[in-house]
Amino acid sequence: MIFRPVLTVRCALLAIMAVVSVAQAADALAEDGYQLWLRYTPVAGAARDAAAARATGIVALGDSPVVRAAVAELDSGLTGMLGGARGRSTVVADGSIVLGTPTQSPEVAARAGALRLAAAGAEGFVVQSTRWQGHAVTLIAANRDVGLLYGAFRLLALMQRHEPLTTLDVHDAPHLKLRVLDHWDNPDRSIERGYAGQSIWDFWRLPGYLDPRYTDYARADASVGINGVVFNNVSASSVYLTPRWIAKVAALAAVMRPYGIRVYLSVLFNSSLDLGETKSGDPRDPAVIAWWHAKADEIYRAIPDFGGFLVKADSEGQPGPRDYHLTQAQGANMIAGALAPHGGVLMWRAFIYATQDAQDRVRQAYREFKPLDGQFAPNVLVQIKNGPLDFQPREPVHPLFGAMPRTNEMLEVQLTKEYLGFSTHLVYLGALFSEVLQWDTFAHGAGSTVAHVIDGSLDGHTLTGMAGVSNVGTDRDWAGSIFDQADWYAFGRLAWDPEGDPKQIASDWVRMTFSNDPALVAPVVNMMLRSREAVVDYMTPLGLAHIMATGHHYGPGPWISNLSRPEWNPVYYHHADANGIGFDRTATGSDALADYAPEVARRLADTTADDLKYLLWFHHLRWSDHLVSGRTVWDELTFRYSRGVSTVRGMASSWDSLKSRIDPQRFYETAAFLGEQQAEAQWWRDACIAYFASQSKLPLAAGIAAPEHPLAWYEEQVYRYAPGRSQPDPDHGVAH
Ligand code: GCW
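That is the input. Now the predicted structure with 4-O-methyl-beta-D-glucopyranuronic acid docked in place:
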């Protein structure tokens, strides 16, 4: 963490305040964030009475492990919010909560409505105030037990948010089939790009010891509709495919199953070779093909509902079909063939940029995959990062979305904030995810949003999905900060409904995580919605990207130019010199614009469009060029860097003003992190302005403060122990 005397005073003051207030409210220590948004705190007053009248008992018509999980959740939620255990009953009375499927009782369909249930599909639900055997009840109806679980979480959420429960009429169903968290966790419990402690998956003690935390993880996922988990890093180790580890995975699968969560594994493309069980990894080699089929059979014997595999191939040193001069489709289809008989799917990542390729990095994956449209097996999803570069604070959406109508395309976003300040910076990613989902690809004219590409409605796909690179670790608050929990929550909500409103999602999260106090909800939601633009401003404004430090990606490094691969260097992306700045991706440059639909290309070619969000991503401009804002490029750049810092300052004082409304422990943590964020935002601003000033040689406009230190000071900052470094895999020796 960068050292800044002024803010150290802020932190010292905060620390004293925290110690005093925590001492005063000993019981508040429970607020360590472990409960996440499933804080079933007592409901008071009229809201309590209203809820209690509609939660007199729980009657479940079925008795599967999923139903039992739903009943247990209802019971602990109601006990927490309304006091007094309810437990399960067989007698329906006024105020009962009845859970059932039409196969468990025909009255379910009669009450919930056949049409509603039909629309609910396999995972949807209906929560409805109705009468049952002459009693006023709340019915949770679904076609499958997992729908009942989701319905139970929805009812509890409504109670947590003190929503009226009198005439409930809620019916909902997920828009995507696969809603998956990808854990980049390694066998030694380190996490690539992890900022919240170690991996929660204690494979060493599996299968014998099942940490209760696994169940709480599954509850959290199910509460926002997440139905898939990939336990291990895409920079994969093949140890997970050995019999001993398959047994460990099977034990975890058994914990996840009652919560409707399927388990998946990241696999090395050449696992059979890596394990020394075949002579080659060539996907045409009958021995390799047979190996994968046998391996899949072995896994499905242990885990009958195993989800499938995730593969990072031909990327950052990972093996892949290119090693055998084959296409990504040829490589993927071989492995997919082994999964198909078991109903398994293969998520094949499109994150490819070649070791030796002078082509603009952001065009490479498009060029590699677009020609393969329609060649992937039906159980393959091509998993595409939101942008064509790499999870930057803002990127234009990846041009592959909508460009492969005969391919199942899946979105990959990053919850762990590798490039957005790790777990310290408060950056609400719901706004970023939604911006991506609402991006119009114009693949089939206006309205061809990414949401419609990935939900299959645009091109008639039924195998659909969205993956999030998890931010979960062993930290007590799971995510490294209280506000990083909101990103896990928002991911689940938006994977369930990509049309979801990020503001509403933020508000729901604040009310479930903190309180329903309007004097708290409004300012906190406002703070969250400003946070995403702030990080873009103080790190990479105007479409800049990839100007961070090397390896750990912590802090600014726009001056870096000495790395072995050109596209690893920040200078490769900003092209700043005495004349100007920006990457020319128009027809006069790398022509990356041509990868987008004409309507999109026209908009991105317009240097006045989109509030200049993608200006320097697609254009190289002179420092003195005037922009639609009325400022020159240079003045706009320095203005936005400064604006980012003042936004964070505003967020911190807004939070400070809420001290009396938030428990000391979470208040202090967030206040301290906001202090760090201010310091680091200032550091980013000053370092980048110092560097770009050394290129532009232009004076700062009035009101723009000079950087605190000379450029050399910023260039000298080194952080050897910044967290999240990718662990070099001993077999492949890759680290950057
Ligand atoms: O974001 C980059 C990270 C790598 C990661 C890679 C990927 C798992 O720096 O750590 O590797 O992307 O997405 O595969």
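Residues 184, 192-193, 234-235, 312, 316, 351, 390-391, 418, 726 surround 4-O-methyl-beta-D-glucopyranuronic acid (CB under 6 Å).
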